[in-house]
Structures are given as structure tokens and as C-alpha cells.
Specification:
Layout: H1 2-24, H2 26-42, E1 46-54, E2 59-67, E3 79-88, E4 97-106, E5 109-114, H3 120-142, E6 150-159, E7 162-167, E8 172-174, E9 182-187, H4 196-211, H5 214-224, H6 232-242
Parallel strand pairs: 4-6, 5-7
Antiparallel strand pairs: 1-2, 2-3, 3-4, 3-5, 6-9, 7-8
Length: 243
Amino acid sequence: MKKVVIIGGALVIIVIILIVIGLSNLGPIIKTAVNKYGPQITKTEVTLKDVGISIFSAEATLKEFRVGNPKGFKSPYAVSVGKVHVNVDERSLTEDTIIIDKIEMVAPEIVYERGLKTDNFKALLNNVKGTAKEEKATEKKSGDSAGGKNIIIKDFLMSNAKLSLAVTMADVRNEEAEIPEIRLKDIGVKDGGIPPAEAYERILAELHKSVSYPGVSNALKESLKNIGADIKGAGKDIEKQAK
């Protein structure tokens, strides 16, 4: 009986050690994935400075995460956030579909920049859509997901965002616009997992809706009134978009 107890206790210890080792490796895995595949998905600069791992809660904290702007926009970034909390089901890391229980963006700084015919988030969204189409084409051709892994995001939350407005041709900035909380549930669940680009596309589409809603457009129009005659055409274009 004692032997059984000893063997059982040893197995539990081994399992705990394996889990700890797996979680300790999770940080570098996430950082590498973001810095390597992020720019491929958005066609812009994407950087992540560091990842902290809580062994007891299996939660990762992404530190200083930033998504750059597409070409043609002057703002240094589209999204910058000091902390993003990510809870990953570590058991799924060895599976074809990685399950992310929760992603929470804490007080991100967002810059919504309008150009003559488009804005930075619409340009980002078009880039991501293009990547998603490429992944689907590759998957259809090879019979496997392009990156070898699909993902499921059970809960995505972005709150307390600070939104700055900008106009590409005039360097106008306005800090007064606000956007509502964004919460998405069960991304990719119905499909049994989706490619990362497709998941990012769904989140970015919702974010674009929030940053381009009438309240933001009206605030941007007010800023444009003070610019002068040189960008009246841009003001009319933005007014059409607001309507």
C-alpha cells in the first residue's frame, strides 16, 4: 500500500513539474509568435517587449504591445497598450487548435487617423483580410492550416481605451473622443478553431466600427474646421463618411 502511495505521489510531482516547465516556456513562445507572425498578418510593424507568466493562474501578461500603422499614415502607431492579459489553456498548446480562455486589453491608447479616402484602421483591416484569404487558399491547397495552428478565443475584452484623432495631411490631434467597451465571445468556436489572421480580422472589424462611429467622426470634423482651406476636400470626405 505504501509503495502505491509513494508511486502515486511521485507521479503527481512529475505532472506538476511538467506543467511548470510548460508554463515557463509559454512566455518566449508567445513573444516569438507575436513578433514573428504579427507583422505577417497586419503588413505593419508589430512589437511585443516582454511576457510575464503566472504559474499558479496560467495567465500571461503581454507588456508593451504595439501595432504600427500602414504605409501612408503619419501617426507612430494604431494601437499601443501597456498590458494585455491572456489566459491560455496550456493543455491545448500541443494540439492543432490553441484555446485562449480570455484576452483583456487594459486601457489601450488608440490613434484613429483619417486620410483623404480612407483611415488607418480600414487599411489595417484590408491588410488582415488579405492575409486571411492567403491562409485559406494555402489551407485549401495543402489541406492544413497555413501556420499549422488554429485558435479559439472564448472571451475578448477591451475597456477604458484612450482614443486620439488625427488627420494625415494636417497633424491634427484631438484627445476628447471616447469609444465604448468591446467584448467578443467564442471567436472560432463554431468552426472548431480558425487561423490567427481570421480571428484578428474579427476583432479588428469590431474595433474599426467603434473608432469610426458618428461620435468620433463628429469630433474629427470639429477639428478639421480649424485647419484651413487647404484640406476642405478632406473635410467634405470625412463628413460624407460620418453621414
